[in-house]
Design goal:
Layout (H helix, E strand, L loop, with lengths): L1 H9 L3 H21 L3 H31 L3 H24 L10 H14 L4 H9 L1 H22 L9
Helix pairs in contact: 1-2, 2-3, 3-7, 5-6, 6-7
């Protein structure tokens, strides 16, 4: 993440800088996943992808001549290298996740054992998301809604077509 942040600040190509900023956000998402916070990792990943869409849309028209001037080999190589590194980190991060049905935290075991009695819900996932972690879920939904609205505001067509 630190390396990508330095690249984002030092590189002259605006589009490459935006992609490096995206790598920082992706690294943060992986850090959340490694630190056993998958809900934050998913939220960070979605917001990061939506922000990248906005930033690439804002910079692509200004940076298009640089892309056309024979840098395709460097761009293709760096893209493939980034994908390979991302998949490697994702592989190691996903290997660290606990096996299905084996909670690693005491509170998760309490949710499983007492979820039905405390909430009355037959679906344990809904009971955890809506009863035990309701404020957290509301915050995540608000973040995702705000990010989607931001993208829609940026990529919408300006004005309306007058049909007469």
């Amino acid at each position: 993440m630190v390396f990508a942040a330095i690249v984002a600040v030092q590189i002259e190509d605006l589009l490459s800088s935006v992609i490096a900023v995206g790598a920082v956000g992706l690294g943060l998402s992986l850090a959340f996943l490694i630190l056993k916070a998958p809900d934050l990792a998913i939220t960070q990943l979605v917001v990061e992808i939506l922000c990248l869409i906005i930033l690439i849309r804002a910079t692509i028209n200004k940076d298009l001549p640089v892309i056309r001037d024979g840098r395709w080999f460097f761009n293709t190589t760096s893209t493939l290298l980034f994908i390979a590194i991302f998949l490697m980190f994702a592989y190691f991060a996903l290997r660290e996740l606990p096996h299905f049905g084996q909670p690693i935290m005491r509170v998760a075991q309490e949710y499983i054992n007492q979820g039905k009695e405390l909430t009355g819900a037959t679906n344990i996932v809904a009971a955890i998301i809506l009863d035990f972690r309701g404020y957290d879920t509301l915050g995540e939904a608000t973040i995702l809604f705000t990010a989607v609205m931001g993208v829609l505001a940026i990529i919408r067509r300006v004005g309306r077509i007058n049909e007469e």
